[in-house]
């Protein structure tokens, strides 16, 4: 075998390996995206205190391990209710959205998306929609 043939064979093998790696990474990314979406939906249900009757609760030791993992890496840890809280909340009716006492009395975010500060009594509140 000549050096050119060896080099061509090497390049072909590397090309096949890169193709397999890209395919595997794509498949893993798709699985991770599905898992993230399912997890996001479960977290949303937990925050809203809605639980599917057939849903199994995550054991406490697994929850503690997950919390520890995220804390050690400096990731945010969202507080979700325990299974008993969810079961109790599932039996209660879901309250509707709060309606302000007077229409238009709630603050509106300005062009920057920032809401006016709620605790400053010394500001002229009549300008809050203009300033923010």
Summarize the structure.
Helices cover about 55% and strands about 0% of the residues.
Number of strands: 0
What's the alpha carbon Rg, rounded to whole Å?
27 Å
Largest sheet: none
Mean pLDDT: 75
The coarse overall form would be: elongated
Low-confidence stretches: none
Number of helices: 4
Coarse structural class:
mainly alpha
Order of helices and strands: HHHH
Q: Span between N and C termini?
A: 75 Å
Proportion of beta-strand residues: under 5%
Helix content: 40-55%
Summarize the SSE layout with pairings.
Elements: H1 3-47, H2 60-72, H3 83-90, H4 128-131
Task: Summarize the structure in words.
- There is one protein chain.
- The protein is mainly alpha-helical.
- It has four helices and no strands.
- The chain has helices at residues 3-47, 60-72, 83-90, 128-131.
- The chain is elongated and about 80 Å long.
